[in-house]
Model the fold of this input.
Amino acid sequence: MKTKQLLVLVGVMVVLGLLVLTLENPFGKSEREKKVEAALPLFPNFNRESVARVKITALGQTTTLVKEADQWLVASMDNYPADPEAVDEMFDKVAEFKTVDLVSTNPEKQSVFQVDASGAEAKLLDANDNILAHLFVGKTTPGVFSSYIRAADSNNVYTGEGYLKATFDRGYRTWKDRTIFNFNKGDATNLTINSEEEDIELQVDAEGKWQMLKPVASAVNPTEVDSLLDTLSSLKTDDFEEEQDPAEHELDDPRATVTARLNDGSTRVLLIGKQEEGNDRNPVKRTDKDQIFMLYSSNLDSLLKKSTDLKQEAPAAEFDAVNNPAPIDEAGGVQVIE
Done:
């Protein structure tokens, strides 16, 4: 190919490349991205640090969250600690809402999108009861990946990303913090499991390895112990029990206990009561708290390990034909050792 033809071809390719970059804008922002960036916040004056109280009404029930010091409490449920992750998620969503996708301005259609009393109403206030955000969260859009939202002082209905009703209306899950235990599993130095069948005790040795002390002295399976500690150190309840009488659930005389001693000398003790008849719920309780929780058997089984599960199986003896030959029987054959 002649040099002149090659130069012409290169020139054409450069022009085509510039044309693609201009029209397709593969490395620039899409029109959608530009629209989102240019959109105004739905609640421009919202400041999560200023929120002191939250009122959420859904299906005729109102839940009130209040902030005391640095902790959120469910005031409508005897000031039980609120789930901090759930509260943060709600604040994140309110801060993210923008006036991007306008769906309707017709007040008569609010019930269609459930951005009225048929949806979830959330009111976020500061310490002086000034409203920082007041909104209605409706049903999901046909695409499922977003939901309808409306500021209470406007007829404009927008969409927001996610299944938002679950974020603002916790329903049967409630806003209570579901945490039973939360500690660093690496801080545990001693574990005991006391049940009707056996008493198990595990201890970290001088080399940092877990050893079984009871019911027999033995090395332990590190995978099994790690699994147990994973569950215990971040244990969350499957449900809250309304009946708070320990005797009713035989927690005064538990059928089993699981105890972890930490390197600071503190302990975490879980009492396990009698399983309820006709269902898979097991009452459990910390010794230092009044609240009674419920765990399903599948989660409880992760804690109530057997010594046979935890014990490290001895490695099978290897046959060494040179240094440790098999004994020869009287007939001259190799003796089988059973």
